[in-house]
From TrEMBL:
<comment type="pathway">
    <text>Amino-acid biosynthesis; L-arginine biosynthesis [regulation].</text>
</comment>
<keyword id="KW-0804">Transcription</keyword>
<keyword id="KW-0238">DNA-binding</keyword>
<feature type="domain" description="Arginine repressor DNA-binding">
    <location>
        <begin position="7"/>
        <end position="74"/>
    </location>
</feature>
<dbReference type="InterPro" id="IPR001669">
    <property type="entry name" value="Arg_repress"/>
</dbReference>
<dbReference type="InterPro" id="IPR036390">
    <property type="entry name" value="WH_DNA-bd_sf"/>
</dbReference>
<keyword id="KW-0028">Amino-acid biosynthesis</keyword>
<keyword id="KW-0963">Cytoplasm</keyword>
<dbReference type="InterPro" id="IPR036388">
    <property type="entry name" value="WH-like_DNA-bd_sf"/>
</dbReference>
<dbReference type="InterPro" id="IPR020900">
    <property type="entry name" value="Arg_repress_DNA-bd"/>
</dbReference>
<dbReference type="InterPro" id="IPR036251">
    <property type="entry name" value="Arg_repress_C_sf"/>
</dbReference>
<keyword id="KW-0678">Repressor</keyword>
<comment type="similarity">
    <text>Belongs to the ArgR family.</text>
</comment>
<dbReference type="Pfam" id="PF01316">
    <property type="entry name" value="Arg_repressor"/>
</dbReference>
<feature type="domain" description="Arginine repressor C-terminal">
    <location>
        <begin position="96"/>
        <end position="161"/>
    </location>
</feature>
<comment type="function">
    <text>Regulates arginine biosynthesis genes.</text>
</comment>
<dbReference type="InterPro" id="IPR020899">
    <property type="entry name" value="Arg_repress_C"/>
</dbReference>
């Protein structure tokens, strides 16, 4: 790929394009694919980019661990093998690691996390496809989640607690 800008935004856009277009099993493999496009990156920079993009390693359709990045709306390309089930598994894993409590009132759900983790969990929720969730707002250790159903908070809070319980039992 010639004429590609070398900005962080351009590099991260290329990483996203690669990860949505094919299965990538390691950072070394991703670095080689970027280098083939003329983008030289250190392992440390690549690692930071993956964290900033919200990339995680998930099981692909062939059972191998591959990198996945939730996109806006949660849709993934068919080639990457990243499905809604995989995005739910990622969210469940994050809930097991980060969710302290989940409480509801009407269509509001308050999720508590350890200090500094709320925005990470909120981003994962926003990138997942949960039709019942209208959106999130994150503080330092609290996520406010708004449901579409005026009385849907209890059901959604229960789902998050179930995610956390299911994932922690599978760890």
């Amino acid at each position: 790929m010639t004429g590609m800008p070398t900005t962080k935004t351009a590099r991260q856009a290329r990483i996203t394009a690669i990860l949505t277009g094919q299965s990538v099993r390691s950072q070394a493999e991703l670095a080689a694919l970027l280098a083939a496009d003329g983008v030289q990156v250190t392992q440390a920079t690549l690692s930071r980019d993956l964290v900033e993009l919200g990339a995680v390693r998930v099981r692909g359709v062939d059972g191998a661990l591959v990198y996945a990045i939730p996109s806006e709306g949660g849709e993934r390309s068919p080639q990457s093998g990243v499905t809604q089930e995989i995005l739910d598994a990622r969210l469940a894993k994050l809930c097991a690691d980060l969710l302290v409590t989940a409480e509801a009132s009407g269509n509001l759900v308050v999720l508590r996390t350890p200090p500094g983790a709320a925005s990470f969990l909120a981003l994962a929720i926003d990138h997942s496809v949960m039709p019942s969730v209208l959106g999130t707002i994150a503080g330092d250790d609290t996520v406010l989640l708004v449901t579409r159903d005026p009385q849907g908070g209890t059901e959604v809070a229960s789902r998050f607690l179930q995610f956390a319980g299911d994932a922690s039992r599978n760890s």
